[in-house]
Design brief:
Layout (H helix, E strand, L loop, with lengths): L12 E6 L5 H12 L3 E5 L6 H13 L5 E4 L4 H7 L6 E5 L1 H12 L8 H22 L3 E7 L10 H20 L2 E6 L2 E6 L5
Parallel strand pairs: 1-5, 1-6, 2-3, 2-4, 4-5
Antiparallel strand pairs: 6-7
């Protein structure tokens, strides 16, 4: 499944987008494995119930035991800058849950008059810190995120806010990325490719 992209050094930032079960994580794992260097896997999921715990366990089993792992549901950029990883590649899986975790923290009271503004500001600060870490740390970054703008408009205000802030976060990272890949049915479509000369 890995094509010409894996045969060259990884770009500084690769963003992998797609819908649910599109093959995003599998492709990201293959890309990181193909690099052959030290990999740090940054996990943003939390085991809120038994089904999610089982999903996390399956994902953990797919990763090589030599990879490092940090579980960071929030504050990813700050944590990485405070304790820089000894790695060549950082795989963040995924931005979708990171934004969700920050949003849920920000929306303790979603009926507050400034809840939306506060939530947007907190997600913006999270993405800014992530970008600072990406620009500062000498690593190749692979970031996985869901493309949530292709489906129906969410029926709730919180759902619409989530779609909007994640969409903006994806746009920020896509603009900064060297390579952007859209996964469809397990196939990578290159939206933006790094120029390796």
């Amino acid at each position: 499944m890995i094509n010409r992209q894996a045969l060259r050094p990884l770009p500084r930032l690769t963003l992998i987008l797609g819908g649910a079960r599109s093959g995003k994580s599998t492709y990201a794992l293959q890309l990181a494995r193909a690099h052959g260097g030290r990999v740090l896997f940054v996990a943003t999921a939390t085991a809120g119930d038994a089904e999610m715990a089982a999903r996390i366990a399956r994902h953990q089993a797919e990763r090589p035991p030599s990879w490092g792992t940090r579980e960071l549901p929030q504050g990813v950029g700050q944590a990485l800058l405070a304790d820089p990883p000894q790695a060549d590649v950082l795989l963040l899986d995924d931005l979708t849950l990171l934004v969700s975790n920050v949003l849920l923290t920000a929306l303790d009271d979603p009926t507050a008059t400034d809840a939306q503004r506060q939530a947007e500001a907190m997600v913006g600060a999270e993405i800014d810190a992530l970008r600072r870490a990406q620009q500062t740390l000498p690593l190749a970054w692979i970031v996985v995120s869901n493309e949530v703008g292709l489906g129906l408009v969410p029926p709730t205000p919180v759902g619409r806010l989530y779609r909007d802030v994640l969409g903006r976060a994806n746009q920020q990272l896509a603009a900064a990325a060297d390579t952007v890949v859209l996964m469809v049915a397990g196939l990578p479509l290159f939206l933006k490719e790094a120029n390796h000369g």
